[in-house]
Amino acid sequence: MGNVICVGGQWGDEGKGKMVDILSERCDMVVRFQGGNNAGHTLVVDGVRTVLHLIPSGVLHPKTTCVIASGVVIDPEVLLQEIDTLKSRDLMRDDSQLVISPLCHIIFPYHKKLDFARERALGKQMIGTTGRGIGPAYEDRVGRRGIRLFELINADRIANRLRDAALYANTILHALGSEPLTGYEIEGMIDRAVNHGKKLKPFMGNAQELIYDAMQNKKNILFEGAQGALLDLDHGTYPYVTSSHCVAGHAMAGSGVGFTSPYQVMMVTKAYATRVGSGPFMTELKDELGDLLRQRGSEFGATTGRPRRCGWLDLVALRYACRIHGTTQLAITKLDILAGMDKLQVCIAYEIDGKRTENFLWDSEKLNEVTPIYEEMPGFGELPLRGSFVDLPISAQNYLNKIVEFTGVPLGAVSLGPERGQEIWLHEPF
Ligand code: IMP
Questions:
Q1: Which CATH number is 3-90+207-425's, of 3.30.70.1450, 3.40.50.300, 2.60.40.10, 3.40.440.10?
Q2: Which CATH architecture has domain 105-202?
Q3: Which of 145, 279, 404, 415 has its CA 20 to 30 A from that of 205?
Q4: Tens-place pLDDT, residues 39-69
Q5: Would you say the CB of residue 242 lies under 6 angstroms from ligand 1?
Q6: Model pTM?
Q7: Is the CB of 127 under 6 A from ligand 1?
Q8: How many whole angstroms from 34 Cα to the centroid of ligand 1?
Q9: Over the stretch 249-294, which tens digit does the pLDDT of each residue have?
Q10: Pairing of strands 309-311, 343-352
């Protein structure tokens, strides 16, 4: 029995989906606790690629209960489409596989409009959001004017709430110089919301109680994080962050349970670094090496298709991420993408204002000014697809050992390819 929180150690897109998919086989329940359809988990099973944005990757295992807990913001249109796709591929055979907390806040069309309007108003300072309305939906939640899932099943209530919400959104849209919603659009939105409520009602369930009971009954529970440490609202590269807390500690608040049994934190990180959207990226490669990583690693956003910025592994940022997550083991993905490169660089310190520091900086403007200090490491040739740690070339072992040594966190797994089974396990967290 046990609880494992699986989180990202960089700016998202670390390959958490694959690790969660594998771990799900060994667990009874997978809980998504933050974020929304800004996330995108790409899973490859028997050569078939499935991209999930909201439903936990564990859904591919019929015996695993998947829970979308109250910390998640839901776009009902996207969720229903995901359910339909999974059913049409025979990947979700039973509705009881998915339980959604009625307390989840809902993303409406005006949230997406506001997301675009805010970005446009920011001009060059834009965050580079996914445009999915995530920030505005979380803002409404914190502003105590958000609308929650259970409200969709009461037609009169939702009509009143949405008319008020649209009025409020229109005031801001107007101030930002964007087109407000028309009366026709508002009425259409209400009709769709009622319809979504009917379709989602069978999936609504008391998520807190379900997770609590599973914990009491000593089940294996996996808490699936989205995005990554450096996109955390408080602890990331603010303001170039997402609007939720991506740190492992938020697994409790976002799912509505206090942990009464021990847990492990598995932090997933790529063997190099990527980032989508704007904001500091200390080890970014803006040259052909960056292009090579993008091409070899298929570094294009699973949600927006945007090309990801690519760079060397930043150990300073990674150690910081390990600490804010309380990481108990690392999962290093995409090591295979580095195979064949002559020399590798890892960032071991920053130079800022003429001084060297091994500490992460909290001011994004300062992070933009740092010069990374690299340690060069020999590259390695082709890697096996599976096996054990000692089957890896010595220089690949040294590269992994360097990460372990710098962060002080043991290695749990290394992923050597996108498919299930293409990995080496050193410590299984369950
Ligand atoms: P938002 O979450 O759409 O508001 O976007 C805020 C920032 O987080 C932008 O830089 C996005 O590119 C980034 N972001 C949000 N979700 C993900 C993700 O799942 N992977 C990578 N970046 C993300």
A1: 3.40.440.10
A2: Orthogonal Bundle (1.10)
A3: 145
A4: 988 777 777 888 899 999 888 888 999 999 9
A5: yes
A6: 0.97
A7: yes
A8: 12
A9: 999 999 999 988 899 999 999 999 999 999 999 999 999 999 999 9
A10: unpaired
